[in-house]
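Structure ticket #2291
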Amino acid sequence: VQLQASGGGLVQAGGSLSLHCAASERTTFSAYTIGWFRQPPGKEREFVAAIRYNNYKYYEDSVKGRFTITRDNAKSTVYLQMNSLKPEDTAVYSCAACRTCILSSLRNDQQYPDWGQGTLVTVSS
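Resolution: structure written out below.
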């Protein structure tokens, strides 16, 4: 499946952004697990959030209570609403998809075969 991420930009600390991940696959999109990952400057890529086919949601600890992941299967799109942004949230954010994700490894980027291009989020202090 092809993915396209959008919605990044420059925001002040405490502000909000909404990222979108649109998929090319419409008929089977609901069966995919979609994950958001980010890569801060000079650091490794890290897990942010994921949403499974059954709408179960998973978050990295540092974003719990601030970020919300949702999906609209009719639009083949997953959203990442980011509130109370902090300078340490600055990163390139990418979405990824998998159909046979192992629940215990949702946070492992190696489990996702399909990736969209990243979108840059910059949070100024």
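Closing remark: DSSP finds no helices and eleven strands in the chain.
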